[in-house]
Amino acid sequence: MIEKILPSRVAVAEAFSDLPDAVLLPAEEALTRGFVAKRRGEFATARHCARLALGSLGIPPVPILKGARGAPIWPENTVGSLTHCTGYRAAVVAHRADVRSVGIDAECDAPLPADVHGSIALATEQRRERELCLERPEINWDRLLFSAKEAVYKTWFPLTHRWLGFEEADIELCPDGSFTAEILTSDLEPAAGTGAPAVPGVFSGRWLSEGGLLLTAIVVEDTPAP
């Protein structure tokens, strides 16, 4: 399903429930100590999806471990992103030669709690939401905004290895299934030692509402947009 909002050069694998044949590799198993059964199932299925997606790129199975701030560690010369929510797990990967970074997020299609919404939405975003609710009231724009912010962070962090707060991205959701995220921090330098060009000041993404889910995806090309 999420492939509908991603370019073909990004490999996708997804599941709509935990898979009984999802097996963790030994190094991954160590990361699940203390997990309840539900959390372990999500973790295992997401990594099973990751190996399927990597396999479609010709990359053999490897453990997907955690790095700084819990970000997944992908095989050399690849980039990727994981997501899971009730009724959905997905992994997307691409060759680094084609894509600098990718971020995806999935959320259940339901209103966002008011206290959470107030903590993540800028005044400009709340104003746009009110207008969007009039135009397309069937969409839970508040939850979609949250999902887009999550996708922004998952795209940002591999490029910079720095935190980005909810208030540091101004997201404009559009009814046509697209969105843009203006990065409000002035520090757009890439992670030290990578030799990569500056991080784009605006990310472009797409969203999808289908099957009781809200999905968002951002792909940063191998060279930043002018």
From TrEMBL:
Ranges of residues in domain 4'-phosphopantetheinyl transferase N-terminal: 28-94
UniProt KW Transcription regulation keyword: no
Pfam families: 4PPT_N, ACPS
Lyase found in the keyword field: no
Alphabetically ordered keywords of this record: Transferase
SUPFAM superfamilies: 4'-phosphopantetheinyl transferase
Domain (4'-phosphopantetheinyl transferase): residue spans on this chain: 101-187
Listed GO MF terms: transferase activity
Transmembrane segments: none
Name of protein: 4'-phosphopantetheinyl transferase
Organism: Streptomyces sanglieri
